[in-house]
Write a structure and sequence with these properties.
Shape: flat
Distance between the termini: 77 Å
Helix content: over 70%
Radius of gyration: 20 Å
């Protein structure tokens, strides 16, 4: 058996990384479709885990940007369906990370991230308002 060169090993590694990357994206899309048909929250959580895997396999800054937005959207969806603020906080964090990667030259993408971040903050504020009760929030707004 002939030993492999470092170049061959590197290209095999990249090929496997690409195969894993695209299968992760396919798994993510399958989970989203399954959620739309069956309406199970577990499907969104499974899709989120696939997005986290894809984030670790990013090949370029653009792909990482799309992964971050996907993670933020999944957290936002989970956060809007549950009473906990944890998913909304995670969504804000990932939108901020995507905003740091987005280029102002890509005005459309930059604006979409800003709008999504704004909606996420508003949803979080409304949820805090409901959780705290109207009287407590009214007092804090007056200060």
């Amino acid at each position: 058996m002939k030993p492999c060169s470092l170049d061959a090993i590197f290209w095999i590694y990249l090929s496997l990384k690409l195969i894993l990357h695209f299968s992760t994206i396919d798994d993510f899309q399958y989970c989203i479709v399954r959620h739309h048909h069956l309406k199970r929250m577990a499907d969104i959580e499974e899709a989120l885990s696939y997005h986290y895997e894809a984030k670790e396999l990013h090949l370029s800054q653009g792909e990482l940007w799309h992964c971050l937005i996907g993670i933020a959207q999944a957290h936002y969806y989970l956060g809007s369906q549950q009473t906990s603020l944890e998913h909304l906080d995670n969504s804000i964090r990932f939108y901020m990370e995507a905003l740091a990667l987005s280029h102002v030259a890509d005005r459309e993408g930059h604006m979409r991230v800003l709008i999504s971040l704004d909606v996420c903050h508003l949803t979080r504020f409304e949820k805090c308002f409901r959780l705290a009760g109207d009287a407590d929030v009214d007092k804090s707004i007056k200060h």
